[in-house]
Design a protein that fits this description.
mainly alpha; globular; single chain
């Protein structure tokens, strides 16, 4: 079955490959929301490189240890 052409996304609207910072736009958006959740939970969020996987993991562990789930 083929989707009607109106349902297909054009290649011009899709993001392909990593951004210059090495992370996808979705990952960077997730990181921003994660940092906001940390601030709400009282977890210290210091300066770090955008898309830093070690910082992302630390923030996820800190939130999980406080009972946050997502």
């Amino acid at each position: 079955m083929r989707w009607p052409s109106t349902c297909r996304s054009s290649s011009a609207t899709r993001t392909r490959g990593p951004s210059p910072s090495g992370s996808s736009p979705r990952r960077l958006a997730y990181d921003e929301l994660l940092a906001e959740a940390c601030r709400l939970a009282g977890v210290e969020v210091g300066p770090h490189a955008k898309g830093d996987p070690a910082e992302r993991f630390r923030e996820e562990v800190e939130l999980a240890s406080r009972g946050w789930a997502w």
